[in-house]
């Protein structure tokens, strides 16, 4: 149990940051986080990097 409210808030913020970073996509070509999700040709999901133009699914 944390000794103070501040410790608890720091713990929760750290967990939220870790979860956010683990779900963020990055371009496999250039590593940029500027990725958009698109609807693919047959209803699948594809992604495109808005920094370099690389697309993948």
Word description of this protein:
The radius of gyration is 17 Å and the shape is elongated. The protein has a 3-stranded antiparallel β-sheet with strand order 1-2-3, with no helix packed on it. 4% of the residues are buried. It is built from 1 helix and 3 strands; from the N terminus they run αβββ. It has 57 residues and is an alpha+beta fold. 33% of the residues lie in helices and 21% in strands. The model is unreliable at 18-22 (pLDDT under 50).
| Helical/strand content category | alpha+beta
Uncertain runs are 18-22
Number of strands: 3
Helical region count? 1
The radius of gyration over CA amounts to 17 Å
Task: Walk across the major sheet and give the strand order.
Answer: 1-2-3
Provide the β-strand percentage band: 15-25%
- Major β-sheet profile: 3 strands, antiparallel
Mean pLDDT: 77
Helix content: 25-40%
Shape estimate: elongated
Q: In sequence order, what are the helices and strands, one letter per element? A: HEEE
The end-to-end span amounts to: 43 Å
Quickly list its features:
single chain, elongated, 57 residues, 1 helix, 3-stranded antiparallel β-sheet, alpha+beta
Précis, in short:
By secondary structure, the protein is α+β, with helices and mostly antiparallel strands.
Describe the SSE topology.
Blueprint (H helix, E strand, L loop, with lengths): L4 H19 L11 E5 L5 E5 L5 E2 L1
Antiparallel strand pairs: 1-2, 2-3
């Amino acid at each position: 149990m944390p000794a103070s409210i501040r410790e608890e808030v720091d713990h929760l913020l750290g967990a939220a940051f870790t979860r956010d970073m683990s779900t963020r996509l990055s371009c496999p070509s250039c590593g940029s986080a500027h990725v958009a999700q698109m609807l693919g040709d047959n209803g699948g999901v594809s992604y495109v990097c808005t920094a370099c133009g690389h697309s993948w699914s």
